[in-house]
Structures are given as structure tokens and as C-alpha cells.
Amino acid sequence: MADPEVLTVHEAADLLGISMQRVRQMIHAGQLGARRSSGGWLIEAGAVAERSERLHRGRPPEPHTAWSAVALLAAASACASQPRSGCRVSAAQVVPDRKLRHRILRVLSRLPDPVADDVPWRRLLSARGQAHRMWVHSGVLDRLAADPKVSAGGIGAMSAGHDGLTMGPGRLDIYVHQADADDLIRRYRMREDGDGQVYLLIVPSSVPPGLAPDRGSPVPAPAAASDLLEDKDPRARHAGALELRSCLGALHAVGWLTLWPR
């Protein structure tokens, strides 16, 4: 008879909407209480329920909310890297809608350090678009990456300096606008495959042009860092969390979170 107090790795993965490998990584990191048995890991059902509730609590963010957060984080990072007198951008210029801007900044001010807990960050930024794992013939990967309608994501969009972390061979993280997606999928003969080498994120047409990534240019670093949070490689996830930690620190440094002190 099954024990209702514990779950298998497969059951926990289904409830959390993540891979079984990711569940095992969370166990080893101490993020999920579990014990070994003759049949494998047995995970505390309460710990899974709590993690799931934290991930899915409340109303899901809208795509324009996620991209507004990305824009504010990216702009703050750019400002913080300049002399105080050199930053000419304000939060109001990045997100003109006052109500939306204040709501997002309030949410960002309450997020934990992403290195310590990335779940709330993943929940907020996962609304960037629809993610698909796709397979394409290896011979067209370079052409797909260079397509003017494609924006590089993941480690390919981030600056160097993450402990030598590089994109694995034969792998691609890309963003495309919804209006371009069907044509690109058809032209490069992409097909859905859970083990595919292309991570494709489709940006909804509801995202305003000023917030959606520019075609042919890498996505902003906070969006690329969000890609890394979903990576199977713990080094990649750590690099993504470090990037978001830096962005959050920049928001405080430029004074855009003064209404919501730490």
C-alpha cells in the first residue's frame, strides 16, 4: 500500500512540473526533504506541496509584467555600471505606466536572494513566453542562430565571466516573436522533442515592442539568466542566479526601490 506521506521522484516531478533530474538535484541541495529506500528516493509529500504552493501561489504573471521586470532589471544594471552623473534613464522611462511600474518594483523588492531561493524568480519570469524544446538537424543550427528574426538567449546572450561556463556543443537557446514562430519552425523543420538541442521561447504578440527583445539581438541579461535557472547544469543555474542577484542589487543601488526598503 502506498504511503501518502511520501512521494517517488517521478510523482514529485509531475507535481512540480520539473524533470526527475531536477528533483534529484534539489534533494542533494537540501531543498526537498527525502530519504533513501530500496526502491530509490522517498520525498516528503509536505515539502513538495509547500514548494509547489510557493511556485504557483496567486495569479500567474502576465507576459508584459515579466518583460517589464526584465527591462527594469536590465536598465538598472546599465545605470549602476556608470558614474552616478552618467545615468540618464529613470524607471518611469523604462516602464511609463505608473501603476504597472510601482507594482513590479514592489514585487521585485520582496523577492529573496535568487542564489538562496530561485522559485519566486522563476515564477515571475517564466511568463516571458511559451518555452519549447525542439529538435533540428545539426547542419542548420548555425543558420538558425544567425537568422535575423532570432534573438540569442541563455549563456549565448550573457557576457563572459561565469567560471568558464559556455554553451554546450550542438545546443541553442533562442527567442522568437510569435508572429515569426510558425515560419521559422517550418523553414528549419523543427519538431517538438524533450531531448532536442534547441530551447525555443516564443514571445507573445501581446508584449509591447519596447519590451519584447529586438530581432537579431541577444535578449537582455535578466532574460538570459532566467533561461539558465531552468538549465539541468547546476553551474548554469548558479550563474543565472548570480546575474539576477547582481540586477537586484543594481535596482537598490540606483534608488528605484527606495519606496520599498529591504
What do you see in this structure?
It contains eleven helices and eight strands. The protein has 262 residues and is α+β, with helices and mostly antiparallel strands. It has three domains: 51 residues, Multidrug-efflux Transporter Regulator, Chain: A, Domain 2, CATH 1.10.1660.10; 69 residues, no CATH class; 109 residues, no CATH class. The strands form two sheets. The protein has a five-stranded mixed beta sheet with strand order 5-6-8-4-7. Strand 2 and strand 3 form a beta hairpin. The N and C termini lie far apart (48 Å). The model has no long low-confidence stretch (mean pLDDT 86).
| Helix fraction by DSSP (H/I, runs of at least 4) | 40-55%
- Uncertain regions spanning at least 5 consecutive residues: none
| Biggest sheet overview | 5 strands, mixed
- Outline, from the CA principal axes? globular
Radius of gyration: 19 Å
| Largest sheet: spatial strand order | 5-6-8-4-7
**How far do the termini sit from each other?**
48 Å
Class per helix and strand makeup: alpha+beta
Number of strands: 8
